[in-house]
């Protein structure tokens, strides 16, 4: 083997901890920044209108396939903790294909009384426009290497609220371009969404 690569400092450290040779190299994932940075504000406003969102609605968007380890259930619990005033002004968009978790998430929405606050949009080809239509990007994964969804949201100019797993904290500078929150902690998510 000539080289062993990790896509975040966290992954490199995990490889070293598992006994990989000390020559592990770090190469972060790359994205086409221009595709997201130019997800025009006009297209975003048009999409907001198509989705029925007023200008004062706070749109939180999570781009992640619906796997349990992506932490969607934590996002729903945090939204429920926000209380009626904020909850009535906000909508959470879940963008990604169903990988077996949607039915449980829909049941959780009913239990929490949030069916009007969350929309499942499925897998979409217009993610740059969805991000342009959003106010805050969120990713609550329980495990991650280095998330393209995080850097795509940042390229679109969104503040990101992300779980402190994998390379998320390497991308998001807490308090500057978003917040890094402990995974599996809806109360801390609620606090960060309010700030």
Could you describe the 3D structure shown?
With about 200 residues, the chain is of the alpha/beta class. It is about 40% helix and about 15% strand. It has helices at about 10-15, 35, 40-50, 70-80, 85-90, 100-110, 125-130, 150-155, 170, 185-195; strands at about 5, 25, 60-65, 90-95, 120, 135-140, 160-165, 180. A six-stranded parallel β-sheet has the order 5-4-3-6-7-8, with helices on both faces. It has a two-stranded parallel ribbon with strand order 1-2. The model has no long low-confidence stretch (mean pLDDT about 90).
Briefly say what this structure is.
This protein has ten helices and eight strands.
Defining key terms:
Rossmann fold, alpha/beta, 8 strands, about 200 residues
User: CATH H level of the largest domain: which superfamily?
Assistant: Glycogen Phosphorylase B
Could you give a short account of the major beta sheet? Answer: 6 strands, parallel
Low-confidence segments, given as residue ranges, are none
Question: What is the global morphology?
Answer: globular
Q: State the assembly state of the protein chains.
A: single chain
